Design the sequence.
């Protein structure tokens, strides 16, 4: 089979899994960044210099692990991370040793008075000024210049026969603000000045999805991450979650679906308490991708008739386990959760120090190769 036909076959298999339709086997999708650099022996200081460089390492790695039906992202550029978390990022070869992992450096950069500024100046104006003053005066120009290679990178993956699921990430105001404010102080604000924080969030929400959805449509990408990390059920009391988290996720997820794009609910931490709340979304229009802390079998029980479940071979198993352990757990997932409405996947990213033979075992569990 040539790569064009293989690309279409894989793309159709993923789409059928999302739509909860019968298929020949469960798809397997890879999610890795730094693991690719280690696999092809590229220093991380080089890997992070641009999306095109990272894509070259990631493309080479997909063959080494035995092929996959898709990859979440076809490239990685850590300088985009401040756009999600309003925090500085320490880079290998700059603030860190050449082969050290990049690190999000969370500090209290947002002050309480910034809530009023967000409300009065508008989120886009405030954010541009904030990034220039608190993160880097050249950050936005660097990110925009790097993005010029995105279409080329997608074509490179298509030529390889591998669909790229996502070209970007959207999230909710909670996740963005707690990064720049720092988590502890932000949660304290939810108790001390809840109305002010909610008003700021309400002023932000109209700007959460527009640019990312427009980019996805222009590039012909069918999926987008809807990221949830510290807004998880295990992190907040029920009243706080009900007020400051779910209403915003509901709006963002519905906007993505209405745009004709499939949201991948990339939810780290434990969301078990509130999984049933996500039954409100249309059947066969979402993917839930927990990271291993949410009980994936419970997620399938609660949401399996509503959305596709994707996961959840843990980073610890991929790093510390054996190929036999990885293969057996991957088969357990496929047999108990799939093949209908299930995609085999790591729990969040395949880590930098994952054993190559373990990742190969995960892929082989789905492909049979």
Sequence:
């Amino acid at each position: 089979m040539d790569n064009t036909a293989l690309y279409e076959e894989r793309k159709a298999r993923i789409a059928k899994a999302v739509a909860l339709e019968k298929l020949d086997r469960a798809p397997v999708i890879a999610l890795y960044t730094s693991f690719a650099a280690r696999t092809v022996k590229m220093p991380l200081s080089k890997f992070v210099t641009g999306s095109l460089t990272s894509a070259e390492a990631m493309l080479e790695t997909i063959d080494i692990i035995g092929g996959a039906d898709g990859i979440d992202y076809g490239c990685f550029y850590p300088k985009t991370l401040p756009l999600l978390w309003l925090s500085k990022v320490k880079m290998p070869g700059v603030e860190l040793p050449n082969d050290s992992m990049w690190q999000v450096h969370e500090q209290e950069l947002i002050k309480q008075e910034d809530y009023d500024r967000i409300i009065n100046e508008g989120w886009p104006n405030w954010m541009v000024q904030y990034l220039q003053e608190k993160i880097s005066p050249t950050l936005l120009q660097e990110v925009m210049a790097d993005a010029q290679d995105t279409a080329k990178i997608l074509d490179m993956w298509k030529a390889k026969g591998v669909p790229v699921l996502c070209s970007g990430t959207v999230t909710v105001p909670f996740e963005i603000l707690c990064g720049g404010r720092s988590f502890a102080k932000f949660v304290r604000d939810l108790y001390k000045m809840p109305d002010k924080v909610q008003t700021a969030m309400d002023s932000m929400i109209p700007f959460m999805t527009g640019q990312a959805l427009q980019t996805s449509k222009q590039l012909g990408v069918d999926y987008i991450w809807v990221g949830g990390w510290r807004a998880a059920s295990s992190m907040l009391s029920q009243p706080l979650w009900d007020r400051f988290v779910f209403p915003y996720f509901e709006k963002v997820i519905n906007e993505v679906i209405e745009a004709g794009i499939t949201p991948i609910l990339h939810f780290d931490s434990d969301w078990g308490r509130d999984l049933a709340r996500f039954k409100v979304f249309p059947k066969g229009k979402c993917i839930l991708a927990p990271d291993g802390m949410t009980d994936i079998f419970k997620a399938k029980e609660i949401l399996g008739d509503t959305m596709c479940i994707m996961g959840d071979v843990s980073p610890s198993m991929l790093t510390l386990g054996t190929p036999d352990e990885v293969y057996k757990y991957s088969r357990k997932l496929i047999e108990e959760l799939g093949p209908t409405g299930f995609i085999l996947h790591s729990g969040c990213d395949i880590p930098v120090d994952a054993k190559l033979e373990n990742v190969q075992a995960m892929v082989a569990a789905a492909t049979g190769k």
Q: What stands out?
A: The chain has a mean pLDDT of 97. The two ends are 15 Å apart (CA to CA). The beta strands are 29-30, 70-71, 88-90, 103-105, 166-170, 223-228, 262-267, 287-290, 308-313, 342-346.
